[in-house]
């Protein structure tokens, strides 16, 4: 039996890569492969789903037709260990954030990103093949000399979002909404590359010019402490602190409540290898405004309003247009639903399995 | 690394190009209105500059110095957040227990950072003065060469 095991440095059930890994393991097992997940740092919520990466070499003895799919998103010594194993090695590349965004806010993270890029430059030409979440990611792999690549989006099961939201939070947000004003929502780690400061600046202008009762909610934990503090200071300096909420990390049910009480989803990020929250917003019929950078055009497609200019007055005008133009709003909601269907696991799952099988056959020795 | 600026816009099903153009026109029209809060928008623009990327281009010694000065802001309090139960509390206990040590080291690193930064600042001023002098000498040389021809 062919074995396809997944390796990752950090395995968390609540993040997109962790969920993708779990879903892929199920697909692989259902298709008849032996498949396990190995990690260095496994979070509590998936503690019983993964094996320690250090245990794998001992288990490898006497087995052949073994493949490792290494989820690459940050530099980690685990990759050097995996490279030494006598197996077919492939990458599932989820992108590494450009270190330039982190130097001034979180230099240690920037160093890890640089280390990741160094590892990737060595790995890309050496692995049997590599999968990429997006065409943007695939271009990076090709530029680094990876000979066999394919685009295989992150596996998302939108049925996960059909459960009940946090009732108390939803009720509270609906109570506030009754007073009027639009609700802006931005979901994702609070990180300099995601440029939440641009969302805050645009929101402040929008509130001043178009909608004085508008509110903005950032959902996501912090990944750069100084940046997090600077955003809070910015909200105070712009006089909008009372209208801006930083939720930090939330439960799944709370996330559903935020999506169910939003009027517009705004993402002005400058570096994304893919982006799951924009698709989640589309699933909840929340129109998306996004900056057309990196992998976002390929992810958002025509399901959202892609801006090429993110000056605050322009983003504010876009949000105002969405608020006042019901036809455009409905058009985006409809296009968003089609985009969600495009990325549904019913489509992407079989495509990923077929791609994996083809690449293993073409590159296997 | 692939370009991370606007690129590869998808084929339009909705008239996105038209909508984008209309939005940009609306933004311009708003800015031209007499009630446009120009002072506030100017304040927003000033705040925006605080978040600008600071990557030192080769040869830009002042930008490199600004980066260095920012990195002198060393935090003695290590982050304690963790998704694993109990780890956050354990980290808090450890952090409290060793704070007198980390704070002592942090103060010295900050001092070292500022001392390094002052060296960089002095070097930058010296280099800029020398560059100005070289430019001046080059101009005078050109003048002399012109006079002798």
Characterization of this structure:
The complex is a heterodimer of chains A (365) and B (149). Chain A is an alpha/beta fold and 365 residues long. Chain A has two domains: 3-157 and 345-359, Glycogen Phosphorylase B (Rossmann fold, 3-Layer(aba) Sandwich), CATH 3.40.50.2000; 158-342, 3-Layer(aba) Sandwich (Rossmann fold), CATH 3.40.50.2000. Helices cover 45% and strands 17% of the residues of chain A. Chain A is built from 14 helices and 13 strands. A seven-stranded parallel beta sheet of chain A has the order 3-2-1-4-5-6-7, sandwiched between helices. In chain A, strands 10-9-8-11-12-13 form a six-stranded parallel beta sheet, sandwiched between helices. In chain A, helix 4 (107-126) links the parallel strand 5 (88-93) and strand 6 (129-132). In chain A, helix 7 crosses helix 12 (312-324). The mean pLDDT of chain A is 94. With 149 residues, chain B is mainly α. The model of chain B is unreliable at 1-5 (pLDDT under 50). Chain B folds into two domains: 11-52, no CATH class; 56-148. Chain B is built from four helices and no strands. Chain B is flat, with a radius of gyration of 27 Å. The interface between A and B is large, with 64 and 48 residues.
């Amino acid at each position: 039996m062919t074995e396809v095991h997944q390796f990752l440095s950090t395995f968390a059930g609540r993040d997109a890569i962790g969920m993708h890994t779990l879903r892929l393991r199920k697909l692989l097992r259902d298709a008849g492969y032996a498949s396990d997940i190995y990690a260095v740092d496994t979070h509590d919520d998936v503690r019983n789903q993964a094996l320690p990466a250090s245990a794998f070499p001992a288990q490898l003895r006497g087995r052949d037709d073994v493949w490792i799919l290494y989820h690459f998103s940050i530099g980690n010594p685990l990759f050097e260990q995996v490279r030494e194993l006598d197996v077919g090695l492939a990458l599932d590349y989820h992108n590494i954030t450009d270190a330039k965004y982190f130097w001034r806010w979180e230099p240690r993270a920037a160093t890890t990103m640089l280390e990741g890029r160094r590892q990737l430059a060595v790995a890309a030409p050496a692995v049997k093949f590599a999968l990429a979440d997006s065409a943007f990611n695939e271009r990076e792999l090709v530029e680094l000399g990876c000979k066999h690549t394919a685009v295989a989006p992150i596996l998302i099961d939108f049925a996960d979002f059909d459960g009940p939201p946090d009732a108390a939070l939803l009720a509270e947000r609906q109570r506030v909404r009754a007073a009027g004003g639009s609700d802006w929502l931005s979901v994702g780690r609070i990180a300099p590359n995601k440029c939440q400061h641009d969302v805050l600046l645009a929101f402040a202008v929008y509130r001043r010019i178009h909608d004085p009762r508008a509110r903005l909610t950032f959902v996501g934990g912090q990944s750069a402490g100084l940046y997090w503090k600077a955003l809070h200071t910015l909200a105070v300096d712009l006089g909008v602190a009372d209208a801006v909420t930083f939720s930090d990390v939330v439960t799944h049910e709370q996330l559903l409540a935020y999506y169910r009480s939003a009027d517009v989803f705004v993402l002005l990020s400058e570096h994304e290898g893919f982006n799951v929250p924009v698709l989640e917003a589309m699933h909840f019929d929340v129109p998306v405004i996004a900056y057309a950078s990196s992998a976002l055009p390929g992810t958002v497609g025509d399901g959202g309003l892609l801006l090429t200019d993110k000056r605050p007055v322009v983003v504010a005008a876009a949000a105002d247009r969405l608020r006042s133009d019901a036809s455009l709003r409905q058009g985006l909601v409809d296009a968003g639903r089609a985009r969600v269907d495009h990325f549904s696991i019913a489509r992407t799952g079989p495509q990923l399995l077929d791609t994996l099988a083809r690449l293993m056959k073409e590159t296997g020795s | 690394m692939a370009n991370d600026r606007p690129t590869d816009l998808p084929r339009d099903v909705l008239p996105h190009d038209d909508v984008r153009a209309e939005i940009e026109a609306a933004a311009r029209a708003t800015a031209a209105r007499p009630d446009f809060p120009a002072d506030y928008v100017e304040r927003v623009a000033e705040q925006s500059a605080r978040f600008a990327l600071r990557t030192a281009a080769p040869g830009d010694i002042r930008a490199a110095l600004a980066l260095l000065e920012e990195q002198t802001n060393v935090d003695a309090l290590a982050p304690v957040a963790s998704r694993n139960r109990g780890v956050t509390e354990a980290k808090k206990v450890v952090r409290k227990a060793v704070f007198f040590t980390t704070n002592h080291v942090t103060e010295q690193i900050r001092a070292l950072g500022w001392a390094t930064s002052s060296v960089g600042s002095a070097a930058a001023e010296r280099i800029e003065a020398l560059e100005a002098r070289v430019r001046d000498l080059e101009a005078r040389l050109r003048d002399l060469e012109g006079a002798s021809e």
